[in-house]
Amino acid sequence: MLEVQDLSVSYGGLRALQGVTLRVAAGQFVTVVGPNGAGKTTLFKTISGVVSPASGTVQWDGASLLKRPSSARAHLGIAHVPEGRQVFRTLTVQENLEMGAYPRAGRSQWARTLDRIHALFPILKERADQLAGTLSGGEQQMLAIGRGLACAPRLLMLDEPSMGLAPAVAETIFDRIAQIHKEDGLAILLVEQRVAEALELSDHGYVLDTGRMVLEGGYQTLLADDRVRRSYLGLGEA
Amino acid sequence: MFENILNAVAAGLIIGCIYGLMCIGLGLIFGIMKVVNFAQGELLMLGMYVSLYLVAGFTAIGFLGPYAAPFVAALIAGPVLFGGGALLHRFVLRHVSGLSTASRQDEGGFGQLIVTLGISLILQNGGLILFGSTPESVLTPLSASAFILGPFPTGALLFLNKAQVFAAVVAIVVAVVLWLVMERTTLGKALRAAADNPVAATYMGIDVDRAYRIAFGLGAAITAIAGGLMATYLSFTPFVGLDYVIIMYSGVVLGGMGSILGAFWGGLLVGFVQQASTLVLPPQLQNAAIFVVFLLIVGLRPQGLFGRSAERA
Ligand SMILES: Nc1ncnc2c1ncn2[C@@H]1O[C@H](COP(=O)(O)OP(=O)(O)OP(=O)(O)O)[C@@H](O)[C@H]1O
Ligand SMILES: [Mg+2]
């Protein structure tokens, strides 16, 4: 479904990504982990067309995404829940969700997706008329995810959804993401710093470090790897 | 004396409604694109001339009779300037605003300053060549007649210029329609989303460049309609924009930058102050009076009278 091949990105002279390759199949749960500044957000922005790569390809259903304007992604079924939530602060919660449903698929399935979003995050129904900028951090994250779901996507990209949240709230968010993956059969591409929780949920994981994919594999493979255990999990040698 | 006050207050409210509409045009462009448009006065001027030529040049509109034609022409100036504004954005402004400059340190502010000032000068002097410097106005029998109300206590009579009254009614209707479009329709919400967070709006599938083009076109159209309405009761030259650009900025800042309702109330307040000041000040000092009130309010409430905050307290 999504295929990133040999992708390199530079900001001015600085190399942020170097020869990155990644695949997400339909309904698959894929996680990318890596330290700060590894290039995870850059990878997402490149897939979303906000940053242009120096070389490499990004394909969606076998067709190149790079030629399409960045606003085409949502219409093609790719939802991007960005780092730092980025809700529309001056719009109400309900209007934020409506904007998520801007693409045609979102509009035609609006009644059903709205019910689903409210079932996952009941607080969004309670706060429907509140300005999104006045929500708490956790509520904003729920809104950002709900807004992503509103376009009825086939792939949900989540950039550090647990960032800055209390452990209990982060856990709720992870539970919901797992639920979305299981019950809605949505493919998920997740970037996380909470490596253990993230890898546990996923079918396949990648480790990104200073712009390169240094490791990939299933949950067991990654957890067994000494580098992952030491750097990200704070555990000793396997 | 009471009669003078009564008439100044009424005239202030009526002219204020038209100023309110004029300010909404500027407020829309600033609120959505964050572009400070120095050419807004010239968009007002173009609205006046479009209206003038429509009434003079097209029998189709002349057919509506001398009463309705000027107001219909003012409304048609809207779509005409929407097209003009959209083209101006497509070929000029998009290069100094929006996503193309978002990453620059000044967010394109200097470029916008120079470009919009340049557009303003070109339109003024182009207007001089095309339209000439003779003062014009869109004559209607209503311009020279008044509704007379009263007598009020002390025998005071209230004179309401008919052209101004009808212009104010049209202005209010247009403002309400625009407000409904911005609040209730998907287009309006998408424009507000693009203003709030352009990158996130792109992730939602909103073409932000197109949203800005529509916003600029709408802002031009709204101010142009206000211009067409004003043309029914005052005379103008290609330099008329200079007189009103200050009023528009005062109104928009007073209203709290970027809220449509705020811009309307700001414009209304400015029109009111301007007319009320004629009671105690010579007409040359009208704009000075506006500025004194402006400084007072901005000093006391820097967020503007109607600015609201979407941040957590
Ligand atoms: N707009 C930019 N201009 C210049 N350099 C940038 C820009 N955005 C990111 N970078 C650099 O690219 C590198 C990768 O950044 P990126 O945001 O992708 O990392 P990340 O893995 O998402 O980090 P974090 O976990 O902290 O979010 C960093 O060194 C960063 O400084
Ligand atoms: Mg990041």
Q: Mind explaining what this structure looks like?
A:
The complex is a heterodimer of chains A (238) and B (313). Chain A is α/β, with parallel strands linked by helices. Chain A has one domain: P-loop containing nucleotide triphosphate hydrolases (Rossmann fold, 3-Layer(aba) Sandwich), CATH 3.40.50. Chain A is 38% helix and 26% strand. In chain A, α3 runs parallel beside α7. Chain A is globular, with a radius of gyration of 17 Å. Chain A starts with a strand and ends in a 7-residue tail after the last helix. In chain A, 49% of the residues are buried. Chain B has 313 residues and is mainly alpha-helical. Chain B has one domain. Chain B has a two-stranded antiparallel ribbon. In chain B, α6 packs across α7 and α10 packs across α11. The mean pLDDT of chain B is 88. Chains A and B meet through α2 and α3 of A and α7 and α8 of B. The structure holds adenosine-5'-triphosphate (ATP) and magnesium ion.
Strand content of chain A: 25-35%
Query: How many strands appear in the DSSP assignment of chain A?
Result: 10
> Major sheet of chain B: size, sense and barrel closure?
2 strands, antiparallel
| Shape verdict of chain A | globular
Compose a concise summary of this entry.
The complex is a heterodimer of chains A (238) and B (313). Chain A has 238 residues and is α/β, with parallel strands linked by helices.
Primary descriptors:
A: 238 residues, alpha/beta, 6-stranded mixed β-sheet, 4-stranded antiparallel β-sheet, B: 313 residues, two-stranded antiparallel sheet, 2 strands, globular, binds adenosine-5'-triphosphate, binds magnesium ion
